[in-house]
UniProtKB/TrEMBL annotation:
Function (record text): The branched-chain alpha-keto dehydrogenase complex catalyzes the overall conversion of alpha-keto acids to acyl-CoA and CO(2). It contains multiple copies of three enzymatic components: branched-chain alpha-keto acid decarboxylase (E1), lipoamide acyltransferase (E2) and lipoamide dehydrogenase (E3).
Known cofactor(s): thiamine diphosphate
Organism of derivation: Paramormyrops kingsleyae
CDD domains, alphabetized: TPP_E1_PDC_ADC_BCADC
SUPFAM superfamilies documented for this protein: Thiamin diphosphate-binding fold (THDP-binding)
Example of a GO cellular component annotation carried by this entry: mitochondrial matrix
Subcellular location: Mitochondrion matrix
Name under which the protein is recorded: 2-oxoisovalerate dehydrogenase subunit alpha
Amino acid sequence: AVCSLSGRLSQQTFDSPSDKPQFPGASAEFVDQLEFIQPNVISGIPVYRVMDRKGQIINPSEDPKLSKETVLKFYQKMTLLNTMDRILYESQRQGRISFYMTNYGEEGTHVGSAAALEPSDLVFGQYREAGVLMYRGFPLDLFMAQCYANADDLGKGRQMPVHYGSKELNFVTISSPLATQIPQAAGAAYAMKTLNSNRAVICYFGEGAASEGDAHAGFNFSATLECPIIFFCRNNGYAISTPTNEQYRGDGIAARGPGYGMMSIRVDGNDVFAVYNATREARRRAVAENQPFLIEAMTYRIGHHSTSDDSSAYRSVDEVNYWDKQDHPISRLRHYMTARGWWAEDEERSWRKQSRQLVMEAFEKAERRLKPRPEWLFTDVYDENPTGLQKQQEALQRHLEQYKEHYPLDLYDK
Ligand SMILES: Cc1ncc(C[n+]2csc(CCOP(=O)(O)OP(=O)(O)O)c2C)c(N)n1
Ligand SMILES: *[C@@H]1O[C@H](CO)[C@@H](O)[C@H](O)[C@H]1NC(C)=O
Ligand SMILES: *[C@@H]1O[C@H](CO)[C@@H](O)[C@H](O)[C@H]1NC(C)=O
Ligand SMILES: [Mg+2]
């Protein structure tokens, strides 16, 4: 299912007078018929899947046959992410936090790919991959602390909500400017290769971010420098309000792989096993062969782009309902579990209750916690602050002392 194009051009030999093209830029044959290459020579790169929409395994040899314990873990992480999204989305609507982005509909791409990696593999995310971090063990308390920008936040409250990061879990902190993570990830993968570390890098991005020039630089450097990296594109149909049919004319993102000399595959992102299998194989080969892989996971963004967006302005309720009700990664996995007798109404009910409780406890704790010390605004960039920053810090201090009554300083850590 992996479509390949030999990216490595062999150096030609000049000893025999052959009638083959000798140009150094491509390995090819001469032809004497004028023919333009059709962009659709293969009519649509196929979508690899393991399960059908009802959770039935299509080809038993592709069944990853994961243990009951592992499958239940997948399901619990996917649904816990859902519950956390609901509570944090509501928190923003109620004015408790400033911003939020949900992951609805993309849970299968997160959990399937995260489970296929080694914990030491380095993750670069975009912003809609909270499930990857959750699968790695990031606790609810820290998700909440980040969104609430409280004193427990690892980033000390200096980032917008959903900009998580964890050094311990090898998850590089999210940054908002689109696609900046792509060349950074390529560089990190190059470092891993030179260190012979047996580690891979995975770099997540949306199909919209793939339009940035940085995507081009990252893909080409990874291919030419032969880096152990997995480019994981979540093609969820939209870049905010721009649908994919206005974003590009080629066959999605996977079709660009061969142009860079990269192994590429398109998978059903709502099939957690297909995502798992593809990522696992890509990870194994990326490290064994030092080469980049491109995975395009087809999925659908069920929620609004963010809390600053109202998607009813540019798409129909029927369209959203189709994905929510008929082709959802969580219900597909649940069908699979139910068919094996691993899960039934009782388990569902008690897990829903328990997961909601876990999220609510973390949420209440985060809300009660103090805000980070204002001085932390000025730390962690310079070893010793330059005089300009020192002056700003002193000015802030004077201002806060002079106008204390206007600031809720008792809510801040001392
Ligand atoms: C360089 C840059 N340009 C524009 C934006 C504004 N912006 C934020 S998210 C987004 C859409 C990205 O879409 P996609 O990559 O498909 O990810 P998705 O939101 O669908 O998960 C845009 C245009 C930005 N953050 N950075
Ligand atoms: C999917 O996983 C199963 C079990 O591990 C394996 O037999 C199969 O070859 C995998 N498919 C791919 C494409 O890796
Ligand atoms: C690809 O990367 C190589 C370095 O590895 C660089 O020399 C070349 O200019 C790049 N080409 C493109 C098309 O970006
Ligand atoms: Mg998108």
